[in-house]
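Example record for the data management plan.
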Amino acid sequence: MIEINGAAHVILTVSQWDKARAFYGELLPFLGMTKVIDRDDFFYHVGGRTAVGIERCADEYRSERFVQSRVGLHHLCLRARTRDDVNAAAAKLREMGAMIDRGPTEGTWMEGYYYVVFEDPDGIRLEINHIPGKGVLAIDGVNPLDPAKF
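Corresponding structural encoding:
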């Protein structure tokens, strides 16, 4: 057995390149991430022990948009350090004109779960959440891998 050290990176492929570049180019630095790669078809930000890359889709897929229930990515959730950070992110998203689906609000998934769910220009679902303390790992007798808990 090994213990992983967080998520190294997530790469999102987008069809609306110019809109996505503007959206993530404003959001990711606000989240404390630093741009380290910037090309015409790909850019990459690093911070908070992970990285997010945005990649232009192949030409034949430019008319497509994200569908959450398809095989593949359901949504990407980034962890905030405080509830105030979730509120600040939501305010920034409103300022940017982002589509906010829910929140910021408390969730029922577990005590203290606080989140905002939003979409990028392609409709890719993202979430920023805060769970106090150790989160699900702090609950005695709960198996965080139990599918009934999700």
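Summary line stored alongside the record: The beta strands are 10-14, 34-38, 42-47, 50-56, 76-79, 99-106, 114-119, 125-130.
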